[in-house]
Amino acid sequence: MWWEFLVCAAIGYGVGSVPTGLIVGRVAKGIDIREYGSGKTGVTNVLRTVGTRWAAVALIGDLAKGILPVIAARIIADEPYVMTVAGVAAAVGHDFPVFAGFNGGRGVATSYGAALAMSPIPAAALLPVGIGVLAATRIMSVMTVGLAPVLAIVFVILAATGYHPWAYAVYTLIAAALVVVLHRENIARLIAGTEPKLGSGGEHRAGVDGPEAP
Q1: Which of 6, 21, 39, 130 is most buried by its number of CB atoms within 10 A?
Q2: What are 74-107's pLDDT values in tens digits?
Q3: What is the pTM of this model?
Q4: In whole angstroms, what is the distance from residue 58 CA to residue 183 CA?
Q5: Residues 6 or more apart in contact with residue 114 via CB below 8 angstroms
Q6: Residue 205 within a domain
Q7: Residues 6+ apart with CB under 8 A from 118
Q8: What is the DSSP letter of 34?
Q9: 170: left (phi over 0), alpha (psi -120 to 50) or beta
Q10: Residue 119, in any domain of the structure
């Protein structure tokens, strides 16, 4: 069985490493999105830098990077902990992509995609909650940092009731920890009241070589 873990970890990391946001930035405006806004390749920075339509493309791509490795793991092994490894590897690949100099995003959409593939109904049920929080605050990090632990708590409760395997709860706990740690700068700005809202914060990064934001 050990080979199944290794194969699925490799698939997860490889798929997760596809730099969706970086590709979208190149196609949309010919820019390296890491030179703008937060310097990350995730959906939020795509939204701030190249707009809503392209952010939707990045979102679909990042979700797929979490969904596909879990589906592949289910086909290869149909063992919950193998799917957990595939999901975590996909999130790590998105955060530290080998195809983009290990400078990626913060793993929110990819992590959520993996959870959606593992246990679709409870994961999907939380989506309106996240949208509501975002609509109320207009700050993406409030939604992402808040929703990841909530998803983990829900998955733990459902695992305790026998709804789905404990492996899925373990996955969400690891994924939530990664999301929170990688958002530590956002959390500091939220506390200071300086976190940018939707539609702002996509300026060219000071001290980074490259053209000014179009």
Answers
A1: 21
A2: 999 989 999 999 999 999 999 999 999 999 999 9
A3: 0.91
A4: 19
A5: 66, 67, 69, 70, 86, 87, 88, 90, 91, 171, 175
A6: no
A7: 70, 80, 83, 87, 164, 168, 171
A8: G
A9: alpha
A10: yes
